[in-house]
Amino acid sequence: MQQPLEISQVKVFRRLLRKLEREFNSQLREKVECCGVSVIQCHTLLEIEDRQNTSMKEISDFFRIDKSTISRTIDILVKKGYVSRVINDNNRRFMDIKLTEEGEKICKNINLICDKFYSDLLSLIPDKKLAQLFNSFSLFTEALKNVDEFSKTEQKNCICNRSEE
User: Fold this and answer.
1) Sequence-ordered alpha helix ranges (H) in the chain
2) 0.70 cut: is pTM over it?
3) Which DSSP string corresponds to 38-53?
């Protein structure tokens, strides 16, 4: 592990990351609105598509959100006719979540839209820099996973949870 960065560098990074998050959220929201879904519904549909047969617990674990939040999202997707709940064959106490035919169509459209967007985006980056970008994203993702374990122990010492004395 390297030495901690100067706080000024950390602040610049945080500012850039917020800008990146806002831009991605804005772009994604714009892209998936035409499909009639929100960003969280989009991510949920695509995760169900990737897994083909999953449960609310698996999805909530993947997104790191509580089951009640994902349950509300699934409820909306069921009402829209994009997913269905099916009793698990191995354990009748559990429900599997699957895409309906309409859900598969929505995922196909979302994938086409997003693939086009990301293709256009990546075409603006010089070829020589693409491998560097992919490598950097990979390193950053791994670092995020690793720092999460460290952060869990630090949360116990969160200064936001302290009352004024």
Assistant:
1) 7-33, 39-51, 56-63, 67-80, 101-123, 127-155
2) yes
3) -HHHHHHHHHHHHHSS
- Under 8 Å between Cβ of 50 and 99: no
Left (φ > 0), alpha (ψ -120 to 50) or beta: where does 84 sit? beta
- Would you say 43 and 63 are in contact if contact means Cβ atoms under 8 Å apart? yes
Kindly list the averaged pLDDT for each block of 10 residues, start to end, along the chain of length 165. Answer: 80 92 89 87 94 87 88 94 88 86 96 94 94 92 78 62 55
Q: What local confidence, expressed as pLDDT, does residue 122 receive? A: 94
Tens of pLDDT along 114-131?
999 999 999 999 999 999
* Tokens of residue 120, six digits: 């256009």
- Is residue 154 packed enough to be buried (19+ CB in 10 Å), middle (13-18) or exposed (0-12)? exposed
> How do beta strands 83-87 and 95-99 pair?
antiparallel
**Opening angle at CA 82, ends 77 and 85, nearest 5:** 75
